[in-house]
What does this fold into?
Amino acid sequence: MRAGLTVLTLSIIAAPVLAADDPPRFKLLLSAGYQLGTHSFSQTLSFDQYQETATIATAYTADKAPGVDVSVQFNAFKHVGFSAAATLYNRDLNATYNASFPNPLFFDKARLATGSVSGKQKETAGHLNVLVFGKRGVIDLSAWAGISFFKVEADILENVAYSQSYPYDSVTVTSTPQAAVKDSPIGFNLGASGDWRFAKRVGVGIQGRFARAKATFAVPNASPVDVNAGGFQVGAGIRFCF
Amino acid sequence: MAARGPGEAMRERWVRLGCLLLLAAVLPAWAQGQEARIAASDAAQLAPWAARIQQMADAGEIRLTQSHDDPLVPGRRHRRFAQLHAGTPVWGGELVVQTASQGLVSIFGTLYEGIELDTKPTLSAQEADRVARDQAAVPFGREGRPELVVLPVSEGSYALTYKVRVKRSGFDIRLLFIDAKTGAVVEDRDDIKTESAVGVGTGVLGDRKKVSANKSGTQFVAEDKLRPPRIATFDFHGDLNHFFAVEDLFDPDLARDADNKWDDGANVDAHTYAGYTYDYYYRRFGRRGLDNADIAIRGVTHPVNREDIFGYPDSVVFDFYLNAFYAGDGIMVYGEGLPESLTFQGQHWNYVAGALDVVAHELTHGVTDFTSRLIYQNESGALNESFSDMMGTAVEFFFQPAGNGPLQADYLLGEDVVTPGGLRSMAHPAAYGDPDHYSLRKLGPQDNGFVHSNSGIPNQAYYLAIEGGQNRVSGLRVTGVGGANREHIEKAFYRAFTEMLPASANFRAARAATIQAARDLDGALSATETAVTQAWTAVGVN
It folds into this structure.
């Protein structure tokens, strides 16, 4: 995050001194991206069972992931413009659970089960930004900040199904059904890019974006789960100028 | 078995008068449009119903749905009549009539009267089916087809509904009643009839425990569906005549509770402690119940009422108040204890089922019944009693912390419900007038050769083998295996008493068998064998 802020700050400071030589009115940026960093969250399911409370505590880790970043810039003024972008990252979501199931015959003799499950956390976002742009040598530079509209979908552990038999000292986990939950939080993003045009209307570039929003998932039998979406994303791709 | 006390005839007259008063109370309520429960089984009660049934059948108010001869009592016939309102069945309205050649024998049932309801539905059956499916439910089984019924919804009011049995996700079987006029779901009931349901109960001593019950309709019954055998508890509500009259234990007499929060301590403890005893035998010895083949375990509670004690002869008092007994075939009967104001020989008697060691003791008689069949007389009888005491105590130590208070494990028998002191002591038999040495054994015909007293001798041997110590009479000291190793002694005695002893075994045979069992299990000269050998020697059995 710190690196992203640094890039943005430097870009904003540098922008006014950049020479805007033949700036394009519109620019389309198509980038292959990579979401850096992981994030974790946890969730505890609890429900009444056999006159006691069963609990399933799950710790999730959303991994780094590749993605795509598509952006359109409209350079409305001399050094100021607007952009609209869409990003899509599909993370692996790995989880480990520790479950405690009450004994059907006796109080305080819970059976424990542990295990792991995996799913996906898909983050789709639309970003509306104000940007500043300029040129340094042959490099088009731009920096932006704005509002982000996320749609976050995740596979969350819904239950741990098990079988048991007399004398009920242990349980055998038979399935770990997951619920696809989603939320659409609003957050922010900021970033910068540097592009080199090897032809009048076509070039390549690199970019960095930091986006953040907090999604809240409602899961049956559990308190709502707060999940961070986004993070620091880097990308590189092709640029088209109009 | 049908003991009749001196006040029996008088009591019967009161019962008859009570029944007439009940009928007098029921009939007006019925006529006012309420639910009337009918239970008629003597001539006075049956007289008004003989003509009434015929009238109702002629008027189309009831319809015969079942009729068959009694397979157990020749000459009897059973018929079921469903109640109708304008040709539509009334849900829950039914008469069950038993007849013999001379006429009616009994009628039981529930009838609803005063129903003023148009039985022409607005919804078709297909539309009701669609409503059911809109409830995320799929019609299930032969009752999945919508059937028009009159549903009693509250006292004196009714609704014309379609009854549909449906299945929701998982195996959630429901009975939906859909208003035949509006399509609204009037009732949505759980309809899995044999669903294990873990409840919570409060025992005789106020302790809280789980109750493995079974959901039956809208109620919960004391029928354990979680353990391998059927463990069921039957509550006779103090009706000793009914208990005497039944030829077996039937489901209508199962102890039951409306919300699965059981508060009848005797029922709770009889039921749960039978389960605990099964668990002990399974976990300790791998034994599957009394017969090692999961024979049903059935307990009987409240065979009498405490307040009726003065109306019974001594035989009933000693059997059904101050006792618990194994009746064979996996059936235990638990005494009611005494009213709080009464004592017997200076001791208060609570519900006998409230003592884990007593329940395990009685069930162990069942184990003996299916194994050595120790003859219940003289030394073999004392061994029979002693083995039940040993296992009763062993179960206590398995489930309860060691100590001297209520719900704590010790070497007293029945101390949780017979206070103070309990019935017997394995550590100090002489303190209860029981012999603790073979030289003091009692001879004579009383109590089948003093089986409940001479059990003190093997009881003392068992105690010394575990805890060690000195026999009061011989002065010999025993090096016990220690409480932490009690499992070894329990297994040695269990093995000897269930696998090795003949029915006519005496104390000397028990000594030899338990020593052999200890050697089999833990090896020659093991601490177990040494403790068992020293213990028998200390109590004078050589």
Summary: The two ends of chain A are 32 Å apart (CA to CA).
